[in-house]
Design brief:
The protein is of the alpha+beta class. Helices cover about 25% and strands about 25% of the residues. It has one domain. It is built from 3 helices and 5 strands. A 5-stranded antiparallel sheet has the order 1-5-4-3-2, covered by helices on one side. Strand 4 and strand 5 form a beta hairpin. It is globular. The protein starts with a strand and ends in a 10-residue tail after the last helix.
């Protein structure tokens, strides 16, 4: 499932500070080639969040939720899913469609 935010970016650092002891959070490295200037690097920054069976990739404007193996969601998984659906309320990447 892919979800989006439109206007205000999600604060990844605040999320990691608040939920870092509840979920496994890993910062995925950004690759920027040598000598390349990337003015949008902050919007491409990505965290991987793991609950019991539910995983999520979070950026400041997009969240991708997935399971590697289909299984029922645990209460911890449901808590993460509900939190992400609340913070990323849109199914489309733009309000212009």
């Amino acid at each position: 499932m892919v979800r989006f935010r439109w206007w205000r970016p999600f604060d990844l650092e605040e999320f990691a500070g608040e939920y870092g002891n509840r979920y496994e959070i890993e910062v995925r490295p950004l690759y920027v080639g040598w000598g390349k200037i990337d003015i949008f690097a902050e919007t491409r920054r990505e965290f991987r969040v793991k609950a019991d069976t539910l995983n999520a990739f979070l950026t400041v404007y997009k969240a991708i939720l997935f399971q590697k193996d289909a299984s029922p969601l645990s209460p911890k998984d449901k808590e993460l899913r509900d939190y992400i659906l609340d913070k990323y309320p849109h199914a489309r990447d733009t309000p212009l469609i």
